[in-house]
Amino acid sequence: MVAGAACAALVLTLASDDVEARRSGGYSHRHLRHVVRAPPVLPFEFPNAQYVPVAWGDVAGWRDDDQLAAFNAFRNSCAAIIANPASAETKTLGRSLVEPCREARRHHPATTEAARAFFEAHFVPLRISKLGDVQGFVTGYYEPEVEGSPTRTDVYTVPIYRRPSNLFVRGYSQSSTNLPNKGQVFRKIGRRKLVPYYDRGEIEDGAIAGRGLELCWLKDQTDLLFIQIQGSARVRMPDGSVTRLNYDAHNGYPYTPVGRVLIDRNIIPREQMSMQRIRQWMEENPDGAKDLRRQNRSYVFFRKVDLAADAEAVGAQGVHLMAGRSIAVDKALHVYGTPFFISGALPLESEQSPSAFHRLMVAQDTGSAIVGPARADIYFGAGQEAGRVAGRLKNGADFTMLVPKSMDPRAGEHTVWLPEPRPAAAIARFDVGKTDSAGPDLTKSDVTKSDVTKSDVGKPAVAGTDVTKTEVTKTDVTRAVAGKSDVARPKAAVSGSPGANPPAATNSAATLVAEVPLPAPRPDALKLDPSSPDFIGPIRPQRRPSPDRRPRQ
User: Which one, 23, 154, 193, 220, has least CB within 10 Å?
Assistant: First the structure.
C-alpha cells in the first residue's frame, strides 16, 4: 500500500506540473524528450582551492604598486613560455599565457600607468586561497653568500656534492637536467636492483665521500644546510673568484623544517622563530645541531652555473630571478610566468613593526616546501641583508591571481547546466483543492510521502475522515480489492457510491488516490487472513517432486 500511495502522489505531481513541464521543454505526453544543448563553457578548477573573480578596483593596493617593474619580470618569463608552451599543458591555465606574452613582446611601456593598463587589458583578477582558508601564506628566500675553497683544507672541511651517477629517478634518464624536486629517488646496485638513496645522516657520515663528487668545500655544516634550504649559493674563493651553484637534485626524502623541530621540542618559541634564531642556536649547540640537521633527512645536490658574480640567480623556469618581483610557487598547480598580486602586512623593516606590502609578482621558481594554490616564497636577492629580511617572513597574505582573459571563468557562468529538480522535493509539496460540503474539508490538506509511509496498522479509515490522516493497512487493501469492504476509501472519494456527492475539484487528493488502480492481492492472501470469511486454515507448501521419481498416485 505504501508503494501504491507513493504512486498516487507521483501522479498528482505529474498532473499539476504537466503544463509547466511542456513550457520548459522537459517532457511531452509523459515521455522524456531529448533536448540538444550547446556544450557548456565550464570554469576552470584548481585542486583544493577556492577562487572568486573581483574587479580591479577591489584589489587593495593595486594602484599603489609599480607595475612597470613587474612587467619587466613578466617579459623575462615570456621568452621561456613562447619557446616551450607544451610544458604547461597539464596545468590548469595550460597555454593561455602564450597570447598575453606575445602582446608583451610587442609592447614597451615606459611608465607605471602604461604597464598597469597592459595587465588590466589582458588579464582578469581572481582572489584565490586554499579551500577553507581566508588568506594564503608567504615566506622569503634568498641566495646565500659564503666563503669556500675549491679544495679541502684544515678550515674548509664540509663538501658540497654534485649529483651522484648512481642516483636514479623513475621516468628520467640519469643525465636529465630537469629532475623533479619531490618523489622517490633510488640508487642503483648492479644493473637492476633499486634501493632508497642515502639520507642526510648517511651522507654526512661519508656514504658518498671519495668519489670525486665535491664541487667545493665550506667551513661548517650549518652553511651547507642553509644553502640547501635556499637552493642556490655564491661561494667566494680565497682568490676572490665566485663560484655560482644551483639546485640539481635531491635524495628523495621529504623536507622537514628544522625550525618546526625546535618549536616542537620547546627550544625556541614560535613567535621568536627565524633563520637567524636557528643559526644562533646551532652555533651555540654544535652537538644538538648535528642531531637537528639529521631530523631533516632530505639532502640536496648542486651544479655549477656560468653566471657573472653580480648576476641574479636562475629560477626553475630557467630565467634570472628579480629581487622583490619573483616568487616560488607550487609547480604542480601553477604555470611559470603567472602574475600574482600579493598584499598584506609583512615584517620587511623589523619583526615588531610590519609594513604594508602590495606588489605584483611573477611565478618563476619552485621549492619542495611550497605546496598549495596560495603559497609563495618571495625572492629577496643575495647577501646577508636579503637573508635577514627573508628569514623574518612567515605571514598570511591575500593572493590575487591574474588570469588571461581567454580563461575568464565568468564567461561560462550562464552556460553551465544546472541539475534537474529532485523528484522527492516535487512529490513532497503540492496543493489540494476544495471538496463539496458533504465531504471532508481538503482545502489545507497536504499529502506527503511521510504521511503515506507512516501507516498505523489496525486503524482503518472511515467515511468522513481527513484524507491526509487516513491510515491504510495491508489487510484493508486485500478486503477492498476482494469487494468485501470499502473501508480503505473514504465514501466522499469513492465514485459511484450511493449518496456520494461528486468532488468539487478534479485535482483533489481523494479523487486521485481513488482513481489509482490498486495492486492485485496475492493469491493466498484471503486464505491466510483469519478474519476473512473465506479463511480455510493454513496452507501447507506443496513439495516439489524430484526429477528422478514419480509422484504418488
Answer: 154
Q: Contact, 322 vs 183, CB < 8 A?
A: no
d(CA 77, CA 75): 5
DSSP annotation of 162 reads B
Contact criterion met (CB below 8 Å) for 380 and 323: yes
- CB neighbour class for 213 (10 Å; exposed up to 12, middle 13-18, buried from 19): middle
Quickly list H helices, 296-366: none
Q: pTM value? A: 0.66
Give the three-class secondary structure for 6: helix
Q: How many CB atoms lie within 10 A of CB 502?
A: 11
Measured between alpha carbons, how far is 141 from 391 in angstroms, rounded to an integer? 7
DSSP 405-441: GGG-GGGGTTTSPPPPPPHHHHHH--------SSS--
Contact (CB, 8 A) for 176 and 248: no
Quick one: cell of 285?
649547540
Q: What is the rounded CA–CA span in Å between residue 300 and residue 368? A: 11
Helix or strand holding residue 216 (H, E): strand 214-218
Domain ranges of the chain: 2-33+422-528, 49-139+314-412, 143-305
> Cα(462)–Cα(490) distance, rounded to whole angstroms?
6
Task: Look at residues 294, 314, 417 and name the one whose alpha carbon lies nearest to residue 364.
Answer: 314
For residue range 356-389, list pLDDT tens digits in order: 999 999 999 998 889 999 999 999 999 999 999 9
Amino acid 543 reads R
C-alpha cell at 369: 616546501
Give 146: exposed, middle or buried? Use CB within 10 Å, 0-12, 13-18, 19+. middle
- Residue 114 has which C-alpha cell? 602604461
CA contacts within 13 A on the Cβ side of 90:
4
Per DSSP, the three-state class of 118 is helix
Q: What's the pLDDT tens digit per position in 491-533?
A: 433 334 444 444 444 444 444 444 556 655 555 544 445 555 5
Query: What architecture does CATH give domain 143-305?
Result: Beta Barrel (2.40)
Cell 644562533 belongs to residue: 280
Q: What are phi and psi of 357, to 5 degrees?
A: -130, 115
